[in-house]
Amino acid sequence: MKKKSAFLAVSLLLVLAGCGNKAEVPTVATESIDSLQEDQETKAEEVIPEAEESKDTLQTENNQQNREELEGSVKSIGESGVVVDKIFVYEEEEATFAIQAADGQEGEVPITVNFSEDVKFEIHTVKNGGVNGDGDVTIREGSFADIQQDATLNMTGYYIAPDQEFMAETVIIYEFV
Q: Is the pTM higher than 0.70?
């Protein structure tokens, strides 16, 4: 029986010694993982500019499709833009109405207007209150410098932020004489 116990003890020690050698933890090659991450980051950086370009192109196309008109009275003039108080225009029974809140009164809708790089300005000089239609209007080319305080502007473009910021592509400046 002593022989069996000794044999079992020796066998157990050999088994444990053998298992100890096999239980080593393999080393992880971090270099290959790091290089994979760098490759993925490089590919992502290459894709981002393409995505931004297509986003800008898509936004420009959407803006051209969403062209709107804005009519307003100039409240302040900045270096490259203006703030207008929106004039609401609507038609009813063959008549056109324009409504604008009085200065400082409830209902004013101030909108910041920026101008695109290729904005086109026109000055429409209206005499006799425009009672004779187009016969009372003369049109000439204008510029940003022709915009005056309280002038009425009719603009075509698109909203950058609804009822807050507008990008004008064409501007008609009205002068009444």
A: no
- Residue at 115: amino acid letter: F
C-alpha span between 50 and 90 (Å, rounded): 43
End-to-end CA distance of the chain: 128
Give SS3 for 112.
strand
What distance in Å separates the CA atoms of residue 27 and residue 33, rounded to the nearest whole number?
A: 13
Dist CA 59 CA 48 (whole Å): 16
Q: Token digits for 29?
A: 């090659």
Per-residue model confidence as pLDDT tens digits over 21-59: 444 555 555 455 555 556 656 555 555 555 555 555 545
User: What does DSSP assign to residue 164?
Assistant: T
Q: What does the chain come to in residues?
A: 177
What does each C-alpha distance from 41 to 45, 47, 49, 50, 171 come to in angstroms? 6, 10, 13, 15, 46
